């Protein structure tokens, strides 16, 4: 089966220059973002809700893929190499140990971690908890107020960059998103276009104030 060419699941990787329609400051920012080297880091891909299921067996929760996964960099079909444990907190008291698949791309010669969409890369809390926190909804039952505040700050910093990525995917590859795009949809598109970045790597654009 040939890999999809237009989908949120596997949008083609493109360290592309920004659209000419972007204002200059966004163009500069995008250029900065896309120059960040991915070498040496883990490449990830996120499975959407309908393409995996979770099966609990003893103390582990297996992430069972319902379809094949393709490399977010070159679209080659990935092969299973191993699994690894990933702890996920549904709340401060409720944690799961997920077994996620480590997949190998024979073309890129690189390992990819296949994540279910309940995981946000490098975050310990589930996507549902993080989404509630970033929306400003009450989530005291899941995490502390200081954690929720950190998550809100992270999202406020990173979301403008993520929205640029989504705009680029729409204009260049015809990917369709909801209006507005959901939290999970945004995270999945950014990860699957190989565009994930840490908040501290973002160079913010500022206008100098006249003295
Ligand atoms: Zn590849």
Write the layout of secondary structure elements.
Layout: H1 24-34, E1 43-47, E2 52-57, E3 60-65, E4 79-89, E5 95-105, E6 110-116, H2 127-135, H3 145-173, H4 183-192
Helix pairs in contact: 2-3, 3-4
Bound molecules: zinc ion (ZN).
Counting structural domains, the number is 1
Secondary structure tally: strands: 6
Written as H for each helix and E for each strand, in order along the chain, the element string is HEEEEEEHHH
Radius of gyration: 18 Å
Beta-strand level of the residues, as a percent range? 15-25%
Q: How helix-rich are the residues, as a percent range?
A: 25-40%
Helix and strand composition category: alpha/beta
Number of helices: 4
Give a list of the ligands. Answer: zinc ion
The general outline is: globular
Low-confidence stretches: 1-8, 13-40
Mean pLDDT: 80
Major sheet:
6 strands, mixed
Q: How far is the first residue's CA from the last residue's CA?
A: 62 Å
Describe this structure in words.
The chain has about 210 residues and is α/β, with parallel strands linked by helices. Helices cover about 30% and strands about 20% of the residues. It has one domain. It has helices spanning about 25-35, 125-135, 145-175, 185-190; strands at about 45, 50-55, 60-65, 80-90, 95-105, 110-115. Strands 1, 2, 3, 4, 5 and 6 form a six-stranded mixed beta sheet that branches. About 30% of the residues are buried. Zinc ion (ZN) binds next to loops. Zinc ion binds near residues 71, 74, 105 and 108.
């Amino acid at each position: 089966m040939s890999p999809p060419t237009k989908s949120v699941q596997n949008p083609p990787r493109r360290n592309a220059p920004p659209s000419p329609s972007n204002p200059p400051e966004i163009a500069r920012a995008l250029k900065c973002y896309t120059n960040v080297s991915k070498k040496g880091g883990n490449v990830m891909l996120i499975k959407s809700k309908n393409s995996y299921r979770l099966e609990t067996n003893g103390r582990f929760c297996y992430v069972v893929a319902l379809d094949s996964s393709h490399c977010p960099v070159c679209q080659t079909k990935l092969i299973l190499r191993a699994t690894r444990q990933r702890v996920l907190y549904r709340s401060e008291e409720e944690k799961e140990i997920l077994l996620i698949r480590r997949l190998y791309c024979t073309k890129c010669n690189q390992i990819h971690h296949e994540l279910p969409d309940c995981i946000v890369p490098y975050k310990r809390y589930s996507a549902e908890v993080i989404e509630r926190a970033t929306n400003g909804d009450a989530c005291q039952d899941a995490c502390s107020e200081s954690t929720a505040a950190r998550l809100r700050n992270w999202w406020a910093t990173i979301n403008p960059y993520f929205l640029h990525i989504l705009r680029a995917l729409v204009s260049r590859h015809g990917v369709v998103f909801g209006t507005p795009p959901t939290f999970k949809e945004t995270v999945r598109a950014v990860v699957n276009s190989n565009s994930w970045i840490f908040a501290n790597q973002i160079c913010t654009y500022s206008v100098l104030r006249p003295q």
